[in-house]
Specification:
Structural class: alpha/beta
Number of domains: 2
Number of helices: 9
Distance between the termini: 38 Å
Strand order of the largest sheet: 9-8-7-6-5-4-3-10
Helix content: 10-25%
Shape: elongated
Strand content: 15-25%
Largest sheet: 8 strands, parallel
């Protein structure tokens, strides 16, 4: 018997996914429908990356989360118990994030869940509160998916005593270290299962790491889990499925066909900074990233983090609200789209100086032109469609007003009517 097929759903949330017709055995018959319970990496356009971590106060690591008054927390349990999960999830929802990347641990491997494996190998490296489980529950209520940050080469940050316990300095083939790190990873996967969509693997592939073994640990437990390797958008296919990079966003803001995690404050974790990127620029970067041909998905993961007790750096909340206003206005021209095959944006295209870009519906029937730099008059002329598409109608997404359409062998001219004006951030014209 076939399961119920749901099609033609209105997309009225920022979360978009693909599902497939299956029978009760789970066999995939390949018929694509819109559904909100499953997701592909290709569908992701917008995320939030949160670093929340503890490093032993005696070692003074600058990637440890501090209090809002800039004093250091005194223990891992203080940090864990001070995370305001409802506030974190509401913040992600308020910026319309489809997914959250969250640090299971960072330097020195202090785990944000009760970990019998860590207690066995490295006592006092796991908190008492199960933050990951609580996050999963809260995120589900907002239809936001979870990717966990995992750093398989954090042994370099350990004390000499801890390094000796887990074999960090044993030398090739580093059997004890790989036994340890795979045990930690297996515990996380066995504990949280398919509620975690993927793993952001930091630190590159250091000599201590048996990368194929890590991949096997993940894929044996969940063949569909994404393995995302941090490193300038490139990745080793023997290890990962996708590349990603943490990016110091700066002019001319080039878009690429792999996902990026730009910090929008002084650092990826909260440390006394303030948001230094405008929501308008963030929105345009998000749209441009979604328009790049051959995109693998993931989009842009804007990176900023809370202090304990639900406090954020200056400007974070207003940034989320303003970004959401633009994203809501874009609606179906951003979520549930693919890069346009008619008007091409190539990887490396800078936002600075780019007048427009284009996305399209997954079936290719509807094209969305995003005009970032308004022309001097009422008309904008685009080149001839790369796929020789012929258009018969054009209208503004904002108000459904008809847009004048003229197409010839040399290009497509779109003209606003007398009552409409160009938006200074993004005028979205729908072509069909």
């Amino acid at each position: 018997m076939f399961s119920t097929i749901i099609s033609g759903l209105e997309h009225n949330t920022p979360y978009f996914a693909r599902a497939y017709v299956t029978d009760t055995t789970g066999t995939n018959y390949g018929n694509e429908v819109k559904f909100l319970s499953n997701v592909e990496f290709l569908d992701l356009k917008l995320g939030l990356f949160v670093h929340y971590s503890y490093f032993d106060i005696t070692r003074q690591c600058n990637c440890s989360t501090i209090r809002a008054d800039l004093t250091e927390v005194e223990s891992l349990n203080e940090l864990a118990n001070s995370l305001d999960i409802p506030d974190l999830v509401q913040t992600a929802a308020s910026m319309r994030a489809q997914y959250l990347i969250f640090t299971t641990f960072h330097s020195n491997m202090n785990m944000l869940y009760p970990s019998p494996v860590m207690n066995q190998y490295l006592p006092n490296h796991a908190c008492n509160r199960d933050i990951i489980s609580e996050l999963i529950t809260a995120l589900k209520e907002k239809n936001i998916r979870l990717i966990l940050y995992f750093h398989p080469s954090d042994g370099g940050d350990f004390t000499a005593e801890d390094q000796a316990r887990v074999g960090w300095n044993d030398g090739a083939p580093h059997i004890r270290w790989n036994d340890f790190i795979n045990s930690v990873l297996a515990e996380i996967m066995d504990r949280y299962g398919k509620d975690v969509l993927g793993y952001f693997m930091d630190g590159g592939i250091q000599p201590q790491i048996n990368a194929p073994r890590l991949r096997k640990t993940i894929k044996d437990r969940n063949p569909y889990a994404w393995i995302i390797q941090n490193g300038n958008g490139t990745y080793n296919p023997l290890y990962a499925d996708y590349g990603i990079n943490e990016w110091d966003i700066q002019p001319p803001y080039p878009a690429i066909n792999s996902p990026r995690c730009p910090k929008i404050s002084n650092q990826w974790w909260a440390n006394g900074g303030s948001i230094n990127l405008s929501p308008e620029l963030a929105y345009q970067n998000t749209v441009l990233q979604a328009s790049v041909t051959n995109s693998v998905g993931g989009g842009i993961v804007w990176s900023f983090s809370p202090y304990p007790n639900g406090i954020w750096e200056t400007g974070a909340q207003s940034f989320c609200q303003a970004l959401a206003a633009y994203v809501d206005r874009a609606n179906k021209s951003l979520f549930g789209t693919r890069p346009s095959q008619s008007f091409i944006t190539t990887s490396g295209q800078p936002l600075t100086g780019t007048q427009y870009c284009a996305t399209e519906s997954l079936d290719g029937k509807t094209i969305f032109i995003h005009v970032f730099i308004p022309p001097a008059g009422k008309s904008i002329t685009l080149p001839a469609p790369a796929n020789s598409r012929v258009f018969t109608s054009a209208y503004l997404l904002a108000n459904n007003h008809t847009v004048g359409l003229q197409q010839s062998a040399s290009g497509v001219t779109l003209t606003l009517n007398y009552s409409d004006v160009w938006d200074s951030t993004d005028t979205i014209i729908v072509l069909a």
